[in-house]
TrEMBL record:
Keyword tRNA-binding: no
GO cellular component: cytosol
Key words of the record: Methyltransferase, S-adenosyl-L-methionine, Transferase
GO MF annotation: an example: RNA methyltransferase activity
Domain tRNA/rRNA methyltransferase SpoU type, chain residue ranges per copy: 2-152
Pfam families registered for this protein in UniProt: SpoU_methylase
Species for this entry: Methanobacterium lacus (strain AL-21)
Family of the protein in this entry: Belongs to the class IV-like SAM-binding methyltransferase superfamily. RNA methyltransferase TrmH family.
Keyword Iron-sulfur: no
Protein's GO biological process: tRNA nucleoside ribose methylation
Protein's name in the database: RNA methyltransferase, TrmH family, group 1
Gene3D superfamilies: 3.40.1280.10
Protein origin, superkingdom: Archaea
Amino acid sequence: MIYVVFVEPESPGNIGFLARTMKNFGLTNLVLINPCELKNESYYQAMHARDVVSNCEIYETLEEFLEKANISTAVATTGNAGGSYNISKIAVTPETLSDSINYGGNICLIFGREGNGLSNQEIALCDVIVSIPTHEEYQIMNVTHAAAIIFYELFKKEKSYPVDTLEPASAQEKKSLTAIMDEIIVKLGYPEHKTKNAQLVFDRIIQRAFITGREAHTLKGTLRRINLRTKEK
C-alpha cells in the first residue's frame, strides 16, 4: 500500500490539488500531518478526488504516523538534494526510486511544507530521499507538480496501454516506401545531387519516425498513385 503524506500543509487548496493529482495515478491514501483547516476550497480543488480528501487520515506528528502505519519504506522528498551538508542520505531521482523500491510492504511518500519543505529531523526518519533534477535558476517546485512527477514514475511501471493495433511498420515496409518515393523524386527532374539529397532526406524521415504497419500501407497506396500520375521528365 502506498500512502501520500503531506506535512503541515499551509493551503487548503493545495490539499485538494494533491488529492486530485493522486487520483490521476490511482492513489487514494492521503495522510495529513498537523494540517491547516480543511475548507470548501480543499474539496473544490480536488474536483473528482473529493473522496480522497474526505477519507484522509490526520496525525499530529510524522513520527506518530510512521509508528502506527507500520511503514516498511518511508520516502522523503526534497528540492535541495545537493549541497546541504545536513542531509545524511544521498538523494535519488524519481526514476531510480521507481526501479529500486520494494512494493511488498507499506510505502509512504512524504511531501513537506509549501514554504520550507521537510526539516532535517523529519528527513532523518526516512529510509530514502528522492529529488527531482531542476534548473539551477529555480530549483524548488510546487508540491503538487513534484508529486505528479514522482507518481508518474511509480505508476508507469503498472500501467499498460493497448498496443495490439499499433504494430510498428517492418523494415521491409519502410524500405518499400522509400523505393516508391525514390522513383517519384527521379521523375521530378532534379539535378543528380539534389535527387540524391531528396531521397536521403525522405529515407531518414521514414527510418526515424514511428509508423505503424497500417499507416505504412496507407501511405504506400498514396505514393503509388502519385507515382503513376507523375510523368517522366
